[in-house]
Amino acid sequence: MTSTDRQRDGRAPARLLPETGPRPSAPVAAGPVSPTPAAVLRGAAAGPDPISRWGGEGGPHCGKGGPPKPRVIGLDLSLTSTGIADAQELIYIRTVKSRNTGKNVEDAWQRLQFIDAEIWRTVVRHGPAPALILIEGPSYGSSGAGTWDRAGLWWTVVSGLLAQDLPLAVVSPSTRAKYATGKGNAGKAAVCSAAANRYGRVFATDDEADAFVLAAMGLDHLGYPPAVMPAANRAALDKVRWPEGIRT
Question: Which domains does the chain have, with CATH numbers?
Answer without folding.
Answer: 28-239 (3.30.420.10)
